[in-house]
Fold each of these.
Amino acid sequence: MERHGFVTFWLIFTIVVSGIFLLVCSFLGQYLEELDLSKIELFFLGLSCVLSIASAVLLLHWRISGFWLLCANELLGVMANTLFGNNFLTVLIAGAIRVLIFYGILRIKKNGVSAWAYLMDNNGKASVFVNDVNKKCRNCGDIYPKLKDLCPKCGSALFEETSSEVSTDQGAKFNHSLDDNSAEKKKCSKCHTMVLSDLFKCPKCKSESFT
């Protein structure tokens, strides 16, 4: 999996800036009166920085939960700012704009696929699939209608876009073979996962040893 360089830059930039603000917050406690800040305002500011760092780290590790944490952080910010006397509609629009900007950045594509398409949930399964771009394995040449981490045939992780289409019969046959309990399978010697017999590498642990 790979992301556009600007997406990586933005995530790291978010972590660095939020970290700096968090450090600043830790030193502001003794200047609350001079800055006209309450302890609860300082607490919410620090919490927002922590959640921003956590969401960016999750997104760097391909977790879709990082985006939902970002949304929750913005919602918390709207509630906190409204509590402190700011205009609800103004802070709501500002929060929505920040979320949309972040979403737009995650949609930036590299080699025809966006970082958003690669995001994974905490169970390690793809939460978003690319259905409009067929992928061709650079090793064995097989074409698949959905995004794959590893080629189901040879285990290669190298894919490229192709204008070639996968017929409905071929796609259905492939999907059926994965779900068909009667299909010939073998067991990975390392993680003991049952996989299709024509796989070269285990999709789970990438081992090449089977029994």
Amino acid sequence: MTDRGRAEDSHPHHVLVDVDQTSPGVPSAGLVGAFMLLFVCLGGVTFLAAAVPLVIVVTRRGRARRERMRQWMAQYGWTMTESPAVDWGNRLPGQNPGGVSRIICGTLGGRPVCVGDYSYTYRALADNTGRRGSARRAYVVVVVRLAEPGPTIAVERRGAFSKLARTLVGEGDAGTADPQFDRTFRVLGCDPMTAQRLLGPALRAAHLAGQVPPWSLQQTELMTYYPGNIDRPEQIPRCAAPLVRVADLLGR
């Protein structure tokens, strides 16, 4: 053997071997991915299986509510208008001019009445990190139309500190010369003589007894509002009747 041959044999031979680097008993990355995909798929199927019946139930309930409302309106002669052209939003929280989504109008106690859904969106703190998000507030608005226009006036309970009422009818506090009433309620937007003329003993007594809500009057539209939505037809007379009583007692 030549010296060159002996030199080559003295170096070890390097052999390339395909070795599985996964340790015994540990699943491969591909197998883990497959299991994860299967888990996600099964989770999606389970979610759909639970969500589909829920959607069906919600849809059926919505249809049933609309049908009950339709039957109630047909029975009592009320009508519904979607996206009505009214400017009530300027007198409501949030002052959203397009916030009235629908109104249901008819007659209650011999007076023309409309009850509507109103809402506005505002910016609010979403969590304790200080990040801000959007929130929605909804109200049922009630309007009774008077036969003749009246003065601009608003009656609110003291302590409510209604910035909205003061914005609409101005600053000031017109007393009625009734100490008990004046301690509990604030009359805005008119002079004391007008307040005393409109808020007679019967209406003041109804306020003190909690039988009528705070209200405002502009031209022929007597208005009040409550938090919430119109979900059931029986809400309509229940929400409107106290304001109809205010209309009946004005000046009494």
Amino acid sequence: MGQTPRPRKSQSEEDKMSDSSYEFGKVLERLDGLEQQNRRLKRGGMIAAICVGMPILLALGVPRGRSVEAERFVVRDSRGKQRAVLGLETDGTVGLWLQNKDEQMRVALDLFPEGSSDLGLHDKEGNVRAWLKVLQDGSAQLSMNQGNGKPRFLITTGADGDSHLTIYNADMSKALWSAP
């Protein structure tokens, strides 16, 4: 015996089914849009909470009217290597010293007890290659040095305002050119 044939749906029933599946698709699209919007709002809220909360937490962590004091601050990289030092030497010199990844001095900024200061730029071997100095009397010097630290190019300005430019030979025994 055979199966009994299903009654055929009328055209209006099929239209209703396609309308309801169309509406269901629209509902799913709207639901996806709302979920995306909700994720964006959560992210935005998290960022806003961090932006507002961090300064508050930082302000609560530092006592007001107090300072951090030390004779030396050392900055180390993730491997524990010393990369920067801000400190006070035993002779009273205050300095900021920056070192490369192998802990070799590359930049030195010093203020000496008598009032003079200098900025030295070092090569990878630690030799001062460029040096800017301001002496206690107000005179200044800028030198470009060879590997042994001896100047090859020197500009000086005296406290009285007189300036000089000198270019030296390799062992600094003779001025090759000078003005004035």
